[in-house]
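Exercise (ungraded).
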Amino acid sequence: MTLKRIYVAGHRGMVGSALVRALQDNPGIELITASRAELDLLDQPAVSDFVSRQSPDVIYIAAARVGGIHANNAYPAEFIYENLATETNLIHAAHTAGVQQLLSLGSSCIYPKHAPQPMREEALLTGLLEPTNEPYAIAKIAGIKLCESYNRQYGRDYRSVMPTNLYGPGDNFHPTDSHVIPGLIRRFHEAKINGDPRVVVWGTGEVRREFLHVDDLARACVQVMETSCADYAAVTEPMCSHINVGTGQDVTIRELAEQIAEVVGFEGELIFDNSKPDGTPRKLLDNRRMESLGWSPSVFFPQGLVGTYEWFLSNGDAVK
Ligand code: GFB
């Protein structure tokens, strides 16, 4: 049997490690990975050399510079440069090495700040972006357009998925640079341990977010890449080729904070700090394209939160 050689770029990150979990038991697949020390994805000649030497059949781009609302706002230069460089290096290297199939991962922040809800793929480039993450969003939009351009000019089969806000094992629990779920898990946990009577939650708490477990995203990515060209073409457009991946349900940040406090066992008071940005008021994805490919999420949110807290507890040293 000829094995399908799949290169997962960024295999140590939250998304990349979920992809490895989703792919590794398939006996028809040979996984290719490279640590940051082995391959710097910002180094174009090194990436070209690696991709042409490894000659994979498929590439999943899970490598990205990511972070929450504060990190996006604080490090805009790294967020636009590193994401653009990673995508251009990998996508161009894939094309020149003759790699026919590739998946690029983006984010629901590619859509306009005030896009109609739930957001359809066609909402892309119809309005202004949320300022706190515009540089990151521009890089992720460029990833979609890179794929479409190589498809249109060279007949490549480069696809892209736009997940909603993700969470799960392997997340970054940094006190300020993380996303809201790991950030609050850590803050509530530390408050419980220290006996603090109150915890600060950023923003008004009134904005809404949709959350997807990273293992559900990984299954969606594999499903997208296993879809035939005809079936993929039937649900997408050549110039609107990306597919949303979400759950179809969202919660307010206040509701989320209350749920996390319960999971962690923090019984004190929540203080909402209005001096911190809220970001986009709402970003619920329209999932009809993904559903028509036969995918639906399987991780029940409260259970996913418990599993993420357990991961945090057993990997405390790794996330300090
Ligand atoms: O997860 P988060 O940073 O992602 O924030 P975004 C979501 C909401 O939670 C915002 C509030 O309204 C935050 O103000 N929040 C409350 C907190 N407490 C906290 C906290 O302790 N930490 C964090 N991080 N937020 C990111 C984008 O925006 O979403 C990225 O900046 C990316 O580009 C990612 O798209 C998925 O949804 O606001």
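Further reading is listed at the end of the chapter. For now, observe: The chain has twelve helices and twelve strands. The mean pLDDT is 97.
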